[in-house]
Amino acid sequence: MKGLYLICLIFLILLSPFFAEEEKEAVAIITSFSGSVHIERDGEDLPTDAMVQLYSGDKIEIGGDGKLVILYTSGKFRSIGASSSIVIETGRLEVESEEAKDKAIEEKRTEDFKPLFAFKAASERLGGRKGVRAPDTTGIFILSPGNSVILEDKPQLIWTSVSETKEYSLKIQRMAVAVGTITLSDTAIEYPVDWQSLEREKSYVMKVEAQKEEKVLASRIVRFKVLSEAKAQIVENEKIAICENSPDEITTHLLLSELYKENRLFGLAIAELDRLIALAPDIPEFHRSLSEVYSDFGLKKMSNRELDKYEELTKGN
């Protein structure tokens, strides 16, 4: 009997770290920062970056040139200004510096905003999707619609040009049945009015070919789908909530990019991430995220470029 007791006790001791880890959940994420921001967890320094998850007990020091925006799981934003020292607690901030009490914290109540998609993205980031460098290839690359979900049922069709090529042949199919085929000299076209209309929630493939001397060049096949009207309306409502509630421009574009990524609207996510990087080019997470989206979208060379930038910014961290 004593032996059985000891076995059970050892079993519980071995499992206790897993139970403890399950109980600890992130209460906030960083959506925007600038200047000197220092994060400490359990006595260890953490690299500061966008989408970093914050837990109860995390300590944050903000320098004289610093600023930080935090989003809580409740949907509440807090902006913390320069020369502040704070401790994260479940659902609120415990402010340590008197100056911060008076000046640094601006709270925005957002009762109707439920940012679960952002916390899911932050958790997946922590899980560690590795940046994968794709082979650098040349040829035709489809820029719209790409490997993506799209909103329009009559999208513009765009691809890259190839030197010394006079004509391109474009084809869209569904279930091996041609929706439309066209040959033209340009690399962009509005969706032809005489083609079969694209159905929502149906998947399609697109391919572009070009004749160069004796050689036929072909793009990779891209697969895309038109979002249903109901889902498109949900995305639009989320977009409005983000734009109305975000305390700064960086947070707005970050959350919009995560919303579009969550719904596989990669073309829109790329546009938001481009705007983010224009505003804050030295935040590594933005380049890592753009690298991933470019890869999913099918633009491998551009994915590699952003991965290079991410590695450059995180070197030594």
Task: Give the SSE string.
Answer: HEEEEEEEEEHEHEEEEEEEEEHHHHH
- Regions with pLDDT < 50 over 5+ consecutive residues? 5-22, 98-104
- Structural class, judged by helices and strands? alpha+beta
Radius of gyration: 24 Å
* Terminal Cα span: 52 Å
Mean pLDDT: 82
Number of strands: 19
Taking the sheet with the most strands, its summary is: 6 strands, mixed
The share of residues in helices is: 25-40%
Please indicate the percent range of residues in DSSP E strands (runs of 2 or more).
25-35%
Shape: elongated
Number of helices: 8
Q: Top keywords for this entry?
A:
six-stranded mixed sheet; single chain; 28% strand; alpha+beta; Serine Threonine Protein Phosphatase 5, Tetratricopeptide repeat; 3 domains; 317 residues; five-stranded antiparallel sheet; Immunoglobulin-like
Structure, explained:
With 317 residues, this protein is of the alpha+beta class. It folds into three domains: 23-126, no CATH class; 142-225, Immunoglobulins (Immunoglobulin-like, Sandwich), CATH 2.60.40.10; 229-314, Serine Threonine Protein Phosphatase 5, Tetratricopeptide repeat. Helices cover 36% and strands 28% of the residues. The chain has eight helices and 19 strands. It has helices spanning 2-23, 98-104, 116-127, 229-245, 249-262, 266-279, 284-297, 300-314; strands at 28-34, 37-41, 44-46, 53-54, 59-62, 67-72, 77-80, 84-89, 92-95, 105-108, 142-144, 148-150, 157-159, 168-174, 177-184, 188-189, 203-212, 215-218, 222-226. The strands form four sheets. Strands 12, 14, 15, 17, 18 and 19 form a six-stranded mixed sheet that branches. A hairpin with a 4-residue loop joins strand 6 and strand 7 (77-80). Helix 5 runs antiparallel to helix 6 and helix 6 packs antiparallel against helix 7 (284-297). The radius of gyration is 24 Å and the shape is elongated. The N and C termini lie far apart (52 Å). Mean pLDDT is 82; it is low at 5-22 and 98-104.
